[in-house]
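Morning, I've got a small favour to ask if you have a moment. It would help a lot if you went through both lines with me. Thanks so much in advance, here it is.

***
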Amino acid sequence: MTSDVAFQARRAAEQALAAVWGPFPWYIPFSNETPLTVATNKVLTRAPFAMDLTGLLPRAFMSVGPVGSAVVLDINVGGSTILSTKLSIDDGDKTSVGSAAPPVLGTTYIADNAEVTIDCVAVGSMGTEGDGGTIIIYYRRAS
């Protein structure tokens, strides 16, 4: 009985801290320092725990931005996109922040151990595709 009370007290304290702490960034590199290519499942990883993405827009950056057209990226969980508007880095930019079409989350929850993949839907023009990219997903730990 005492262990149940201690467990409940610890759980309440953890939930209170989780509400205060965050959001936290989860960095997912999607290309190395070679020209970016269009491909599905460029990266496959797993969520380290359940995540709440409510109100937190993902972003991306590259060491060399695309020229000629935008880089367009998709984030999938369990094989389905979580974005109703894809993440994009505009022509000549190195970041998705300030993009002409900001991303829109269609899903705001990622389950513990869920398979997360990154697709590259579009790249810059030949020879200026962009490279050295990372996606940042901001989250709060879900209970």
